[in-house]
Amino acid sequence: MATVRMIDVAVNFTDGMFKGMYHGKQCHVSDIATVLNRAWSRRNIVSTVNLDCRLDLKLIALQARNSEYNPKRFSAVIMRIREPKTTALIFASGKMVITGAKSEQQSKMAARKYARIIQKLGLACSHGAFSSYEPELFPGAKVRDETYTAFENIYPVLTERWIQVLVGDAWLRELAFRLVVMSLESPIMFLVRFTLNVVVTGGSLEESKEALAIAETDGRLFCTVGVHPTRCKEFEESGDPEKHFQALLSLAKQGIEKGKVVAIGECGLDYDRLHFCPAEIQRKYFEKQFELAYATKLPMFLHMRAAAEDFCEILERNKDRFSGGVTHSFTDSAEDCDKLLSFSNMYIGVNGCSLKTTENLDVVRGIPVERMMIETDSPYCEIKNTHAGMTYVKSTRPSKKKEKYDPECIVKGRNEPCLVRQVLEVVAGCKGINNIDQLSRTLYYNTCRVFFPHDLDSAADALLAGSHDAQ
Ligand SMILES: [Zn+2]
Asked: What domain of life (predicted)?
């Protein structure tokens, strides 16, 4: 079984937008579960069916509408139907591959429709269970009940022969397709499982508590504990900075015990937003939080804006106190990036904000993939149409304005974890990387190295297996 794994290392689920609040106004219901379902849902289902009979492809291509057959190019008939919108590859062996369905249900329905088309052409096999039902079994809407009953009868027969390749998104379809074509040669079934782990970021003591509570709701969710540079005044406003620090420490320890807290953060320096917190206080409590990393042996999830010099100075003084880290949402210059990469345990986190301008893309081009992670930083940092990176985006989702909230669509202007694939696509595109699967394995491996050491072995195996495929 192949598993395609990705990790979104920065998701701000504690943000009001995921509770439906925009600038203090309630626009829709709280919808983290919906957002996560979208990230985890299996889209673009690829399925194969074995009709268990030899097929005359020329005849099919001649008689069936919406079909093409060019044996010099491809040894299958390519057929399309509109409802559900899918494409089938029909092989002479009687095997069929159906792609493009958005759900298992749709894929099953499409399989039945293609089978019926072929059967109507009088090409169904003369033996075997498949041929034992009548061509007129699906006469249309007027006897709908009969149709449903017929479906129920046929369905076990079809499911027996199903090879389901469940994939996550457009860019995965090709991988799935390759596996399916391979599987046609053997009776072995392939299942590509798509998983996306999400790291929910905490930006204050209260937010970190909330992030941990959210992370506890699903095995694929994890979180950080720490105080964001713009929130560092909370140490002093609490009246007792040391007590505040101890509360963070005990929360982190508690979260580690639960297997949920994977990093200290987000912390760092943000000199673009000094109005929230003066530089001096930011520096003081940035440095202080290395003690959290040291005490818990956790890596660091870092934020740096227009502060590379001070940031790296503090990093240098504390480099032996933390195991590794990522400087997320990187938007600074190539020189600043190099400064960070001079720390051997530091990775660069790339999201939509890192892909806005052609200058940004040049910087990303210069980051070795072995030192990179990807993230959405949702609900912020989406890739907008006006951004330079947009040219490389392949998977898009239908969206609606927050005022016209629809749980089936993403909210316009609000980023969410399912869009982490767009970041992957832009990184691949701007770096000229064709093997996007291998890129995602490398990024996954990097993330495991820092945040998920328990998964490191399997990540390394997948990486090696992928590089063999590529050869
Ligand atoms: Zn940040």
From this structure: Eukaryota
